[in-house]
């Protein structure tokens, strides 16, 4: 355990010695993770999270049909809705929600209309995260190649390859922990000052 903490401390010192590369890698990871978190939050809310009702699988959606226009959904008058409540023999209870003073019944399949665009957005965000990881790896590899002399000196002074590998792993671990930490900072900044992130 002591060796691990020693390697982590050495990793922190090494990262501080090259703040530009450290900030670049952490920034790339943080932005990519933040984008994926935001997209997954939307998908979880719209597609994955169950409805907040007991026995949600027994819920049914009612629609108003305008025969003249052959359209469904839209606003329904309060009197029509009360008639449905009183005359229905198929449902144990009925409910509606009000938007702008009108009773609205959402069109059937509204969730299906959002499914494909949201899944495509998730695929795009995942691709961004994958590219971010590849870019971060390339930066770290370039940094490791630039430190060949340092590594050669360590080996000449008696450091074995396992210790050098542990040192590089400790640096990578610190970077992987800093990425999500800055993601949280981005999320808080977006919540407190949304105008900064507005298009």
Describe the structure.
The chain has six helices and five strands, in the order ααβββαββααα. It is mainly alpha-helical. It folds into two domains: about 1-50 and about 115-195, no CATH class; about 60-105, no CATH class. The strands form two sheets. A three-stranded antiparallel beta sheet has the order 3-5-4. It has a two-stranded antiparallel ribbon with strand order 1-2. The model has no long low-confidence stretch (mean pLDDT about 75).
Computed Rg: 28 Å
Series of secondary-structure elements, N-terminal to C-terminal: HHEEEHEEHHH
Task: Quote the distance from N terminus to C terminus.
Answer: 48 Å
Strand order of the largest sheet: 3-5-4
Approximate strand percentage: 5-15%
- Specify the overall morphology: rod-shaped
Number of strands: 5
Low-pLDDT stretches are none
Query: Helix amount, in percent?
Result: 55-70%
The largest pleated sheet is described as: 3 strands, antiparallel
Average pLDDT taken over every residue: 76
Please count the helical segments.
6
Give the domain tally.
2
**Helix and strand composition category:** mainly alpha
């Amino acid at each position: 355990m002591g060796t691990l903490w020693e390697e982590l401390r050495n990793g922190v010192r090494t990262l501080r010695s090259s703040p530009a590369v450290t900030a670049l890698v952490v920034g790339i990871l943080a932005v990519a993770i933040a984008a994926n978190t935001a997209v997954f939050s939307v998908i979880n809310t719209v597609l994955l999270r169950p409805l907040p009702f007991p026995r949600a699988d027994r819920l049914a959606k009612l629609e108003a049909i305008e025969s003249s226009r052959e359209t469904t959904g839209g606003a329904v008058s309060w009197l029509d809705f009360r008639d449905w409540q009183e005359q229905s023999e198929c449902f144990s209870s009925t409910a509606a929600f009000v938007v702008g003073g009108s009773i609205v019944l959402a069109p059937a399949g509204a969730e299906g209309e959002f499914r494909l665009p949201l899944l495509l957005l998730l695929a795009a965000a995942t691709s961004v995260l994958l590219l971010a990881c590849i870019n971060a790896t390339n930066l770290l590899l370039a940094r490791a190649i630039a430190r060949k002399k340092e590594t050669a000196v360590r080996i000449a002074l008696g450091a074995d390859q396992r210790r050098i590998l542990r040192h590089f792993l400790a640096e990578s671990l610190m970077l992987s922990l800093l990425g999500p930490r800055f993601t949280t900072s981005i999320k808080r900044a977006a919540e407190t000052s949304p105008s900064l992130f507005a298009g």
